[in-house]
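Lecture notes, unit on protein representations.

Consider one protein chain, 179 amino acids long.
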Amino acid sequence: RPDLAAALRELRAQYEALAARNLQAAEDWYRARCARLHERAARSQEAVRASRREAGECRRQLQARLVEMESLRGAHQSLERQLQELEERHSAEAAGLQDTIGQLEDDLRNTKNEMARHLREYQDLLNVKMALDIEIAAYRKLLEGEETLFNIGSVGLPALNSLPSPTYSFQPRSFSSST
């Protein structure tokens, strides 16, 4: 009779050796798999940390940009107010200058009218002066003629009776003024 107990022991030893090898292989596979997973988890964790750092940096940049944007918005509003104030001030100055220009134009018109009036008066006075000069010249000629007659008369009165007695009539001219 074959020794069944020995065969069973041998089978059992083979199965136990195979089970130990399988167990060792499973443990090795498990350890390798765990090591790879740990390595992948570490890389993922590092990627997550990097992503968090990057997200934090993006948040800080976003906050800085928001603060900068608010600052620029305030500066923009301030500049808009200043621009509006300048436009209002310039509009007021332009209106004031327009009023001044209008007043100066009125003054210029009045001055021109006054100058024209003075020029007419001057022309009238000049015409009167010319008429008086002509009249003075006529009287001077008359006086010279009288003086000549007087000188001739002192030479001889009989010669005076032979001359016809002249009559002078002077009509002064009136001059019209033209501007």
